[in-house]
Recover the amino acids of this structure.
């Protein structure tokens, strides 16, 4: 059996190098095809009729005028008379037509009578939730009541972070062609290998009848794992239209309302410490909404990272609101609980009269990895010039621009998912990797080629990688930062399995046993004797007409040390706040993240930049705004649902914590941990600047000015 | 937020327009009330009114006259994507906010989702396909080299905005890049690489390696 271990850090030729992503030119030149770009021959268009009400019952629905419209090929009712609708933009009917314009006209001709019912769309005030609030049982560790009594300092406050959306730039949707017993499925998905199973289930067909293919995805962030109702209905529309492919992608308003959101979190928090800064007790009553279904937050994560606090009481309530369901959102739960925890700890440190950096470090023994957090906090502090920029709460310098620094921490799993990879070595020397994975923009194709090139002693351009098809060996969905660990491990194992077969084939020619051969610099040679070698091409010719095809799997129960889970991370922010206008400006953010063995530092840094920038958006501007009077979502567009632009992010510095100790742990995912600590760091920096806490995010001018004037949130 | 693109002024159309009608009638707007104008317009509709329904038009795309059949309400973006298989420009916000559909029309950077295809007739239109076929414009490899992209969906629009920006600002400072590219939004968070890419492309262009 080959030795699957990663080669030692110092002897890697391709892994660990700052290599540009292999599909960068394709994407930058507009040639990369997304399924929203693909037009299968004969494509017609699907459009959805959405509910205008947050809560209603369908009294009647009449599609006859829509059906008569020239160019319309199929109309399907998703919510027949009597159906109760529980959120705005829920699907009422689906239309297929020759052009998208005609399909939209047809949707407008569908007559629906709605019985409007009472709704609840906001959860920020728990007192108004009534019987829509479902409390979970209380969890207690230690003796919180005694701890609060004995504490030297107790701090109590309320914190909130609202619902935000994924806002994937490529909306959810697919092209689907259903003719005979075959379904051609072209979705935008994070789950190439298995999303077809979900479609088949929705259609009550065997999964074997669905062929899924996707070359590129325009953003997922946790929202694109299922076929969804619109995928299933597009298939029905196709069948009803004689098997013509139906292209149906959500418009922007639907994308922001029914395709997934991140749950909110609001919390009343009480924390305590001893005079010397020992963090002794946590008590929280938190609530949130994940939409109509209600759930979606694991409150057991509180207090976050500092989980071993001796005394704690957790109460949590899920509020069912008339909104579309939440979905996994890059590090589900973590950014929200990181904000609540780090803000409360920062406030407690202020009350103690202690520098929060010292408070976070002093209590590192309450984390699962004290040495890692201590080192990362110190590194982040050094990079943000903490000793120079930190001041006691409230910037006392003259003028209306106040500056401050703040910290946040995070943790994540990120062990590799189950993944199978096939490596083929052809007699002409061509090599290909095949696996049903997907590249979310993280650089999956690139790191697969790096692993294969490293393992086979070849340049990256001597290897081809095929992903994005459910006919390829099954690889896990890309969620939870599990992809890099899974696919790098399965690729490592399958390439070495294939190489072993090649060694066996050429051993007689080199006059040495197969286990005495190695692949180096495009050659197969006898170990330590480069004189006895064959070029890669000459070696592969020995295969005759036979192609080597070997599998490799990442077994999550035994990842062979190739990948593991568990990372930390500390971010720090330096912000300025105009106390006259309330505008918060990011000056600088530093991110210190470990992720085990780093296959490509350039792409890893991009993940961290991305996580930080998404967090800037969430900290400063993102908020789904629901109107309680009408039940409408007021900003289901990109004009008023704000995202940061290129000038809004300040200067960002990333420090990938690459050390021999981290490297020896194997590969760990990074996409999610990079997205966790920044919101807390920005919020704490704002507090340090202006001297008061802005309890509810985002840090909009309105919320900042309200906090400055001592007003409660509306 | 950051700066937005200039609104595209209404082009002078060959077909029916209010101004053309007034000129043809030999009167000025000071003389006639609007009510009378409307009556006259109704009485004598111009023969070259565009639509309703699908009409053939010719767009000048990347220097080539290109025939396409569109409805009057079809946007330039939908004409490119749904009818001409030119899918580099993406439909994201579909209302002139995000810049994913950026093209250069008559030398100006515009959002193709807010230009009607029939209004684009007679104007030179440059798309991502036009600057990346053959030897690509230096801004294309600069985005790749600096990892100014992740999922890549905003990227072709960003590349076109950067190209249009550099056409008018060949020697930009770092701060000018930040101010000048505020009309494009990215969700993956690639702005750090984009800033470097635009500066690198500017340097490359000054080197004269691209005419």
């Amino acid at each position: 059996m080959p030795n699957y271990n990663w080669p030692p850090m110092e002897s890697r030729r391709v892994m660990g190098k700052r290599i540009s992503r292999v599909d960068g030119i394709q994407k930058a030149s507009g040639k990369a095809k997304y399924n929203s770009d693909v037009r299968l021959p004969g494509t017609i268009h699907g459009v959805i009729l959405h509910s205008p009400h947050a809560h209603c019952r369908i009294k009647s629905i009449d599609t006859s005028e829509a059906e008569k419209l020239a160019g319309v090929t199929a109309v399907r009712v998703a919510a027949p008379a009597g159906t109760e609708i529980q959120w705005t933009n829920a699907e009422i009917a689906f239309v297929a037509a020759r052009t998208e314009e005609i399909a939209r006209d047809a949707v407008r001709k569908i007559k629906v009578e709605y019985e409007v019912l009472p709704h609840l769309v906001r959860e920020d005030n728990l007192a108004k939730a009534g019987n829509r609030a479902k409390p979970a049982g209380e969890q207690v560790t230690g003796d919180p009541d005694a701890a609060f009594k004995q504490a030297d300092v107790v701090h109590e406050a309320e914190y909130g972070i609202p619902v935000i959306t994924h806002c994937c730039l490529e909306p959810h949707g697919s092209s689907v062609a259903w003719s005979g017993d075959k379904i051609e499925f072209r979705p935008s998905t994070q789950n190439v290998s298995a999303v077809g199973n979900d479609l088949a289930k929705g259609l009550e067909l065997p999964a074997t009848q669905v062929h899924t293919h996707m070359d590129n995805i325009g953003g997922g962030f946790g929202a694109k794992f299922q076929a969804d109702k619109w995928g299933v209905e597009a298939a029905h529309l196709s069948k009803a239209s004689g098997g013509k492919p139906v292209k149906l992608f959500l418009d922007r308003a639907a994308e922001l309302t029914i395709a997934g959101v991140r749950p909110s979190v609001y919390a009343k928090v009480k924390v305590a410490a001893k005079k010397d800064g020992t963090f002794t007790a946590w008590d929280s009553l938190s609530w949130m909404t994940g939409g109509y279904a209600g759930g979606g937050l694991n409150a057991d994560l509180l207090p976050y990272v500092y989980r071993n606090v001796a005394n704690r009481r957790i109460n949590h309530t899920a509020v069912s609101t008339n909104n579309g369901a939440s979905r996994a959102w890059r590090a589900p739960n973590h950014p929200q609980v990181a904000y609540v925890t780090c803000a409360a700890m920062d406030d407690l440190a202020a009350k103690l009269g202690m520098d929060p950096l010292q408070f976070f470090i002093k209590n590192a023994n309450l984390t699962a990895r004290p040495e890692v957090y201590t080192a990362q906090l110190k590194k982040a502090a050094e990079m943000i010039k903490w000793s120079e920029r930190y001041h006691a709460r409230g910037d006392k310098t003259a003028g209306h621009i106040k500056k401050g620094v703040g910290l946040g921490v995070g943790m994540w799993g990120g062990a590799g998912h189950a993944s199978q990879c096939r490596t083929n070595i052809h007699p002409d020397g061509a090599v290909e990797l095949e696996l049903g994975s997907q590249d979310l923009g993280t650089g999956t194709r690139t790191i697969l080629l790096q692993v294969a090139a490293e393992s086979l002693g070849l340049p990256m351009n001597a290897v081809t990688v095929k992903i994005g098809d459910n006919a390829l060996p099954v690889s896990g969905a890309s969620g939870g930062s599990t992809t890099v660990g899974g696919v790098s491990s399965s690729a490592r194992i399958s390439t070495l399995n294939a190489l072993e077969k090649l060694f066996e084939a050429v051993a007689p020619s080199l006059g040495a046993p197969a286990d005495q051969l190695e692949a180096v610099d495009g050659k197969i040679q006898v170990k330590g004797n480069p004189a006895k070698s064959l070029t890669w091409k000459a070696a592969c010719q020995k295969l005759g007409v036979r192609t080597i095809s070997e599998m490799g799997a990442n077994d999550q129960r035994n990842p062979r040390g190739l990948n593991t889970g568990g990372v930390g991370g500390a971010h720090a922010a330096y912000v300025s706040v105009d106390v006259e206008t309330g505008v918060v400006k990011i000056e600088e953010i530093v991110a210190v993240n470990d992720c085990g063995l780093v296959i490509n530092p350039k792409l890893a840094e991009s993940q961290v930049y991305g996580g930080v920038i998404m967090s800037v958006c969430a900290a400063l501007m993102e908020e789904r705004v629901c109107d309680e009077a009408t039940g409408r979502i007021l900003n289901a567009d990109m004009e008023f649902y704000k995202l940061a632009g290129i000038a809004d992010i300040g200067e960002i510095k990333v420090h990938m914590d690459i050390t021999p100790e981290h490297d020896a742990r194997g590969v760990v995912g990074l996409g999610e941990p990079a997205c966790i600590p920044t919101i807390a760091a920005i919020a704490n920096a704002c507090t340090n600047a202006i001297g008061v806490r802005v309890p509810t995010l985002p840090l909009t001018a309105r919320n900042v000015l309200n906090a400055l004037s001592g007003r409660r949130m509306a | 937020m950051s700066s937005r693109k200039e609104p595209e002024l209404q082009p002078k159309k060959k077909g029916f327009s209010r101004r053309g009608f007034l000129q043809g009638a030999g009167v000025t707007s000071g003389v006639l009330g609007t009510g009378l104008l409307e009556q006259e317009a109704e009485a004598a509709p111009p023969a070259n009114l565009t639509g309703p329904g699908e009409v053939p038009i010719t767009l000048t795309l990347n220097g080539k006259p290109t025939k396409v059949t569109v409805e009057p309400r079809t946007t330039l973006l939908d004409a490119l994507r749904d009818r001409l298989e030119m899918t580099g420009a993406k439909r994201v916000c579909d209302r002139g906010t995000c810049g994913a559909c950026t093209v250069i029309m008559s030398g100006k950077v515009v959002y193709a989702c807010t230009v009607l295809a029939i209004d684009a007739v007679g104007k030179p239109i440059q798309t991502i396909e036009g600057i990346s076929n053959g030897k690509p414009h230096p801004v294309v490899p600069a985005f790749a080299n600096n990892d100014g992209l992740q999922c890549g969906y905003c990227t072709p629009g960003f590349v076109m905005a950067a190209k249009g920006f550099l056409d008018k600002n060949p020697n930009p400072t770092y701060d000018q890049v930040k101010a000048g590219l505020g009309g494009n939004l990215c969700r993956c968070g690639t702005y750090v690489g984009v800033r470097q890419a635009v500066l690198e492309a500017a340097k490359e262009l000054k080197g004269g390696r691209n005419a």
User: Anything to note?
Assistant: Residues 6-41 of chain B have pLDDT under 50 and may be disordered. The longest strand of chain B covers residues 55-61. DSSP finds eight helices and five strands in chain B. Helices of chain B lie at 18-25, 34-43, 76-83, 128-132, 139-145, 155-168, 174-180, 191-206.
